[in-house]
Amino acid sequence: KRMADASEAAAAAEAEAEANVHFEPLVQLPEVEVKTMEEDEDTLFKMRSKLFRFDKEAKEWKERGTGDVKFLQHKETKKVRLLMRREKTLKVCANHPVAPALKLQEHSGSDRAWTYVTPDFSEGVADGEYTDEIFAIRFANAENAKKFQEQFVAAQAINSADESGAPAAA
Fold it and tell me: CA gyration radius for the chain?
């Protein structure tokens, strides 16, 4: 019986020694600074939501992404834009200025969602291309949807004051 215990202990020690193997990487990669293009902006509002866009051809709502929607104000120009990135991949799913002409409407049948039509720059940012999109943005509850609506209206007021030449209120 002692021989069996000794051989088991030796096998366990050998397995543990194998588990502590260390490999050096073949290629050393330098650390890269990633620019999000948000460095010159202040975040006025940030909340988790789900964004949908209306597909006119299929006549149905298609999910654009889930993540944090933000209102970002540029430090120099004071313009406010809406930016939303998908969770995990951080791909931009909405990027547009909060223009004073935008009409935020309650989504039919839901007190926690809003719809609006806007030119969106999320797909063709590098080329400066945009497409007119019908967006629906949904929140976890009606209270969060109301906060979004209040911030949306406040951002429109900042942008309209900036366009008229009056000093923008923060």
Answer: 25
**Cβ distance 140 to 80 under 8 Å?**
no
The DSSP secondary structure of 31-75, one letter per residue, reads P-PPP-S-TTEEEEEEEEEEEEEEETTTTEEEEEEEEEEEEEEET
Distance of alpha carbon 123 from alpha carbon 24, whole angstroms: 40
Q: What is the pTM of this model?
A: 0.71
Q: Tell me the helices (H) and strands (E) count for the chain, helix number first.
A: 2, 7
pLDDT in tens, 107-135: 887 889 999 998 877 765 455 667 788 99
CA atoms of 170 and 74, how far apart (whole Å): 12
Strand order of the β-sheet with 92-97 is 92-97, 80-86, 60-74, 41-55, 131-138, 113-120, 105-106
pLDDT, one tens digit per residue, over 39-94 is 788 889 999 999 999 888 889 999 999 999 999 999 899 999 999 999 989 898 88
Task: For residue 74, give both structure tokens.
Answer: 């540029």
Give the chain's largest Cα–Cα span. 92
For residues 91 and 66, is the Cβ–Cβ distance under 8 A? no
